Structures are given as structure tokens and as C-alpha cells.
Amino acid sequence: MRPILKSNKLDDVCYEIRGPALEQARQMEDDGHKIIKLNIGNLAVFGFDPPDEIMQDMIRNMHGAAGYTDSKGMFAPRKAVMHYTQQKKIAGVKIDDIYLGNGASELIVMAMQGLLNNGDEVLVPAPDYPLWTAAVSLAGGAPVHYVCDEGAGWMPDIADMRKKITPNTRAIVVINPNNPTGALYPREVLLDIIELARQHSLIIYADEIYDKVLYDGHQHDSIASLADDVLFVTLNGLSKNYRSCGYRAGWMVISGEKRHAKDYIEGLNMLASMRLCANAPGQFAIQTALGGYQSINDLVGPGGRLLKQRDLAHKLLTDIPGVSCVKPKAALYMFPRLDPAMYPIADDQQFICELLGEEKVLLVQGTGFNWHAPDHFRLVFLPNSDDLTDACGRIARFLDGYRRRHAR
């Protein structure tokens, strides 16, 4: 029989967060090994529970969750999202501008499918959350990566962004707060990005899923709140701020210059209808979450568990010779750099697999986030302090051995 091949649309699609190293980890677990998984921001497995009121609201409303909802979502949660956009000072958002989805991930793919023709280009940050690059490629577009400057605290390099705009460029993706670096962009950087979009008639896609996971008193500015003459598509959800990854409750908000986007919006409506609706139980969680007590503030504020673990992980990692790391201002991750003079890594995926095999710690290599060089990795600092100390100790031991084996 002829081999059955995957679609060639998948040739340029990858998602290394759940890539070959995870498959190796699963095999090791099948063989009886215990793996410390620092590869994905899955809060529940580290003891971060969603607020009780969210769970109770879903339980109480489960009898009404068996049928399809409106293709864009139920009215009450969409109205709650509309009120949230008002709190974020995003002007002019109406109920029909809001789409609920099975997490922001589904909506990212939908937004790209609705926009791109073959050969259209989208500016995506490097490093990025790799679903953005994958979604652009799957839709037939070409992801073009603009550099975020580690030396400037991982800020987007506006000059690099500007020189990569071509007549085929359709949009700019802004991930703020940033995954994987933990960077938080100041208003002046956001205004510079808006000006580029304004000059070249580009859409701005704003991934703001970590907009409440902020440390040291920092505040988040939604880029869509800073202008009304550019089309913005803002994505958010419950997975991170409300520790509800498995509920798959996200939203997408269209704002700004919508008059010239009627055809695109019609396409989004068509795609929303084709998937029938987002899951109803997750929709019931949204209104309660956005209107209730914001317990995330207790986790990221003084004495909070996430703040403590960020500080601990940063110290433990930067105490390792040849390891540097911009301290995250937001989100759940660190993106440390390995000095190439001390760690001459040719293949960082192989490097991560060697670490996994020797120390039973699973990370994700930097190139998995479309970073250009094999000199970074991403670490999730969600384990409790004892487990985090153990994991970082294992990483330090592996790196010590690596330095010795590759000493010049």
C-alpha cells in the first residue's frame, strides 16, 4: 500500500513545547522514571487551583450547558468581556465585536485562517509563543520574525520590525506580557508599534493572556487602548490569570478601525459559525471570573507564591556559571541565556534531550520559540520552592558536567 502522508500544509508547522523531548519524557515515564516537567505552563498540575466560585458557577449551570450556544458565545460572558475592555480603556467595543473560543489558541488559528492568502506575511516576535508562527504557516502565510532585544530587556526592536515590512505584510503580532521572556512592554514601545501599523495599514494582533500575571507593582497597558485608527484584534482568556487551562475559555475582541474590515469580520463570523460554538461549561466561568475576587493578585504580590518562585528560580539559574537571565516582569517563564563560550551547543534540541536523559528535567529549547541561536531555553517556574530548587540543582549539575566535557 502507498504510505499515507500528512498534508504538506504542515511542512512548516511545529510546536516544540509538546515536541520530541516530551515524547522522550513519556517513554521514560513508561519505564518508571519520574520527570520534572518545566516545559509547559499547566498550572493545575503544580497545585494552582482555579477560584472556587468559578467551579461552583460551572457546576450550578451544567444543566444549561448541553446545547449549542450562539456561534460567538453566550450573551452574559460576552457582556462581561465587554466590561473588561472598558476597564482596560479599549474604546468602542460592542457585544458583536467579541468572540468566545475554546481557549485563545483556537481563536488565534481562526484569526489567521480568516485573514491570510498564500504568501501573505505576518510579523511575529522572536522569540515567540510558537502557536503564532504555526498558525500563520498553517493558513498559508509566511511568518516573518522581528527581533526582541535581550540587551534591552527583550523589547521589540522597532528598527528591525520596520525593515521587515514589505508590500505583502498584513499584520503585526504583539505578545505582551511576553511568553517566553516575561517582558512587559512600556507605553512608548506600544505607541511605536502602533505608528508602524498606522503607516503601513497593518492589523495588530495583541496576545494579552498574561495581563494580570504582573510582578513588582508593574501595570499592563492594552495596546488597543492607545489608538482608534488602527484595527486591533485582542486575545485573552481564563487559562493563566484564573488558573483554568483545561476549561478552554478564551475570547477575541475586535476594536479600533473596523469600517474597512467588514469583509474580514464577515470571514471571522463564518469561521465562528463553522465550529458551531465554544464549549458551554467554560463560557459559564467567564462572567464569574472577570467580576469576582482577583486572587491572582495574591499570588503575584508581596509574599505571593508566584513572586517567591520567580525570585528563587532567577537566583538559582543566574548563580550557575555562564548563565544569564533577564528577570521577568510578568508571566510564568524565564528564558535564560547560556554563554556560547562555555556551552558550545550546536543542536539545542539534542541538548535538551541530553539534560532530560541525565537529570530527568524537561525544558524547551530556545529555537522551539523561533529564537535564531541554540543558546537559550525556557523554564516554567511553577513547581513549589522545594521542587524548583531540586530542578534547578539538577540543571546546574548537568551544566557543570557539560562545561567539563566541552572545556576548550
TrEMBL record:
One of its GO terms (molecular function) is transaminase activity. Keywords: Aminotransferase, Pyridoxal phosphate, Transferase. Its cofactor is pyridoxal 5'-phosphate. It holds the Pfam family Aminotran_1_2. Residues 34-395 form the Aminotransferase class I/classII large domain. Signal peptide: none annotated. Its EC number is 2.6.1.2. It is an enzyme of class 2 (transferase). PANTHER family: GLUTAMATE-PYRUVATE AMINOTRANSFERASE ALAA. Belongs to the class-I pyridoxal-phosphate-dependent aminotransferase family. This is alanine transaminase.
